[in-house]
Amino acid sequence: MIVEEFVRAHTTLAAVPFVPELVMYTASDVVALWEHTESSQGVGQPPPFWAFPWAGGQALARYVLDHPELVRGARVLDLASGSGLVAIAAVRAGAAVVQANEVDPFADAAIAANAEANQVELDRHLGDLLDAAPTVDVVLAGDVFYSRDMTARMLAFMRRARSAGAEVLVGDPGRAYAPHEALDQIASYDIPVIRDLEDADFKHVTVSRVR
């Protein structure tokens, strides 16, 4: 089974709780999906981050849709895109070009499926961009500060983007490694989340601008 067929076979199209004007292929059971993913490939796989509307992405997508002037006519990069939710929101808000970046082939396939479901066109890049030179007007990143090493790499990329003149916004639900000293909060939301993933029904999420 090809990867995009797998994504569609193990998820259901549903409205995003905090961004109901968008839909995404969503799984009902994270553990079962992870087991299916590994058995289909015969090797260990990362968790299926692409199959759920994570809190940071929901907040950032909401902010972009409510403030379309942020991306209107711009070249936008959705970094560590996951399901593609934020990238799709940027297209809907009027961005000229949107690239959704992921390192996981399943996430890349989910982005393609979700873009089609929302009737938008975007570019996809499968591979690690964090050592590259940013060449966009806006960088968006939802829920990316989940480890010390990844935060260091993300922040280095974001600061290079800022130095090159890009606007950089992040959505974060209070992850332990969020670099608060480098962020200026511009909005906050209480986002409905999946209890099995977050051990809560809602997460308080901030949208911040990287200095």
So how many helices?
Answer: 7
Enumerate the spans where pLDDT stays under 50 for 5 or more consecutive residues: none
CATH class category name: Alpha Beta
Distance between the termini: 44 Å
Shape: globular
Estimated share of beta-strand residues: 25-35%
Which structural class best describes the helix and strand composition? Answer: alpha/beta
Write down the CATH topology: Rossmann fold
The CATH superfamily bears the name Vaccinia Virus protein VP39
The overall number of domains is: 1
Q: What gyration radius follows from the Cα positions, in whole Å?
A: 16 Å
Describe this structure in words.
With 211 residues, the chain is of the alpha/beta class. The chain has one domain: Rossmann fold. It is built from seven helices and nine strands. A seven-stranded mixed β-sheet has the order 5-4-3-6-7-9-8, with helices on both faces. A two-stranded antiparallel ribbon has the order 1-2. Helix 6 links the parallel strand 6 (138-142) and strand 7. Helix 1 packs across helix 5. The longest helix has 16 residues, at 148-163. It is globular, with a radius of gyration of 16 Å. The N and C termini lie far apart (44 Å).
Topology:
Elements: H1 3-9, E1 12-16, E2 19-26, H2 30-41, H3 55-66, E3 75-78, H4 85-92, E4 97-102, H5 105-117, E5 123-126, E6 138-142, H6 148-163, E7 167-172, E8 183-192, H7 195-198, E9 202-210
Parallel strand pairs: 3-4, 3-6, 4-5, 6-7
Antiparallel strand pairs: 1-2, 7-9, 8-9
Helix pairs in contact: 1-5, 3-4
